[in-house]
Amino acid sequence: MRKPQIKFLKIFLLLSLFSGLSYSQNSTLSPYSRFGIGDLTFKGFAYQRGMAGLSLGYTNPSTINVGNPASYAYDSIMVMEIGVNSEALFSRQNDVSTSGLNADLNSLAMAFPIVKNKLGFSFGIIPFSSTGYNIVSESKIDTLNQISDINYLYKGTGGYTKYYLGAGVKITKSLSFGVNANYLFGNVINQRKEEFTNSIFFNTNYQDELSLSDFYFEYGINWKHSLKNDKSIAIGLTASPSQNISGERNILWLNYKKGATGFDVIKDTVFLSLENQGEVVMPASYGLGFCISKLNKWNYGADVKIQNWSEYESFGVKDNLNNSFSISAGGSYVPNNLISSKYASRIEYRFGAYFNKSYLNLNNNGDLNDVGVCLGVGLPIKRNFQSKVNCSLQFGKRGTLSNNLVREQYIRLSIGLTFNEVWFIKKKYD
């Protein structure tokens, strides 16, 4: 292994240790993360987010495209991706408005060719879903001829992450096939409390913890045809069949009172179930996309994805979820990719828009859609246009004010570093 590759791998391993700690934190503040498996968080690396997640037909040897593992077959240099995301979320329900800020280390991945432009390999750690909500509601209750105020507290924390190991190979000059083996792990704790203001009543605390730890697989095909003047057209297809994910569930339900010192004093345990083994049914998903590009100049494309969330099941219990659907379109443009040109001309400008039909069905409202637009830039590092600092902004909204639901508006900033092997090689000449 050459010295630049060894240095590359050392940096990756060091960052992996740091990222393992970061993924234990929540990456969402949305009350909608309370349902299903939480908010599905990964929408691509920072460079892809500027193009609304364009991935299914996209191939670029100087970037990593986890969205379609068949793209690894086009690898010709070693690449590493690091991503950090932040979000400003503004929520409204009826006349009540809230806001919050959140940030997290989003992704870390590496890819390199085994045989240049024929067989490629990639691995990394990326988020899968996140749960992070804290909801309080008030009511009155008449029990034993006593009128008391009661507070309902709903809180959720945690999320799921995946390590992936993928490979892509060219079957013919134009056709490639790839697979990602994903190891999904993590835990989510959902908690529900009922607290009375009248001290004669006991409060209740119900806590449900679900841990997942298992493999699942994703497959991809890419067909790419060369046109005149360094142009090409590509079509990508991805699929992940319905798969069972092994997990463990712990449930604790108890009665308690607030002590004089502020700590909870437990009266009794209503129900306790520990280390209950079971499975979560991960629904099948499919994607189709295309991309038209000119080498080192521009890319334009669109993706369509569906997932059969009506199949979702957790420990034998179905959830009231709809099948999801998403469509996105985006592209990028570089005014002048020559190293001798001015720096501003070598910046890659990106744009995109998306529409996601959510799997949520709340209060008989199945229109909790997510829509938004994206802008991004790829800033070359020094004189090497392939290694870049990638920045993207997303402006979007999700949900509705109808039927006592929540409307969310958000601004997401993603910053990523794309390093390639060339960046680590010392120049022999100035």
Task: Provide a compact summary of the structure.
This protein has 430 residues and is mostly beta strands. The chain has helices at 3-22, 46-49, and strands spanning 39-40, 79-93, 96-115, 119-130, 133-143, 146-170, 175-196, 203-226, 231-240, 243-258, 264-282, 285-294, 298-307, 313-314, 317-318, 324-333, 348-357, 370-381, 384-399, 407-420. It is built from two helices and 20 strands.
Distance between the first and last residues' Cα? 26 Å
Helix content: under 10%
Shape: elongated
Residue windows where pLDDT falls under 50 for at least 5 positions: none
Helical region count? Answer: 2
Largest sheet: 14 strands, antiparallel, barrel
The gyration radius over C-alpha positions equals: 24 Å
Strand order of the largest sheet: 2-3-4-6-7-8-9-12-13-16-17-18-19-20
Tell me the structural class: mainly beta
Number of strands: 20
Oligomeric state: single chain
**Element pattern in H and E:** HEHEEEEEEEEEEEEEEEEEEE
Structure description:
The chain is mainly β and 430 residues long. The protein has helices at residues 3-22, 46-49; strands spanning 39-40, 79-93, 96-115, 119-130, 133-143, 146-170, 175-196, 203-226, 231-240, 243-258, 264-282, 285-294, 298-307, 313-314, 317-318, 324-333, 348-357, 370-381, 384-399, 407-420. It has a domain at 3-76 and 111-334. 6% of the residues lie in helices and 61% in strands. It has a 14-stranded antiparallel beta barrel. A hairpin with a 2-residue loop joins strand 14 (313-314) and strand 15. It starts with a helix and ends in a 10-residue tail after the last strand. 38% of the residues are buried.
